[in-house]
Amino acid sequence: xxxxxxxxxxxxxxxxxxxxxxxxxxxxxxxxxxxxxxxxxxxxxxxxxxxxxxxxxxxxxxxxxxxxxxxxxxxxxxxxxxxxxxxxxxxxxxxxxxxxxxxxxxxxxxxxxxxxxxxxxxxxxxxxxxxxxxxxxxxx
Amino acid sequence: xxxxxxxxxxxxxxxxxxxxxxxxxxxxxxxxxxxxxxxxxxxxxxxxxxxxxxxxxxxxxxxxxxxxxxxxxxxxxxxxxxxxxxxxxxxxxxxxxxxxxxxxxxxxxxxxxxxxxxxxxxxxxxxxxxxxx
Lengths: 140, 133
Description:
The structure holds two protein chains of two kinds. Chain A is α+β, with helices and mostly antiparallel strands.
């Protein structure tokens, strides 16, 4: 299996992007002032990293890769205007036999997001992708 | 919220029918441009009848249910499992139940069990959350 290294980047949480995201997930608070990022907004923060990881590094077949689970722990309020320092890594990567036969590959990725100024941990997210067996030809 | 106790069900919450426009809007907002969500020929080459919604769109809608119930900024933990696909035309309904309530310093916390269902009653996302209020 291809190994993918950890990655770090910084991300400014800007108002217009948070508003766009809130509207897209049908969050009734999208037009609030002050605007508070929706719980799943970090999905946007990790989107470039995840795309590179899945497509370029792990080379998973998107036609049969499904999103299995997603988890967030919020330790401090995520605020518009904050700058996040993000640190992402693959924490697990293993193969299991599928119920209908064939190999299923599980990749678990964890990202921690810190306040770039104070250094405090704001949130931690964990995402599980599953590349299903080649014969099943499924995607989610 | 002072009368919140174990077993209490959340308010009704419904989104849809989900349109291709909803899906494309989420692709742009989230940066997830996996073509399976907007490119019909690509989706069909993967054996699907049509484009499908992002799992994270459903997860986001279920999270919007929690902030509808407890307010923006109330969520301390959120975990979901993706169970079934969502297609254009589906109407999604969220359901929630209080599993436990406990008092911490200066605030109350509740643990919630959450479901997002399609119009045919099939669960598309199941999950749990911890909220402070």
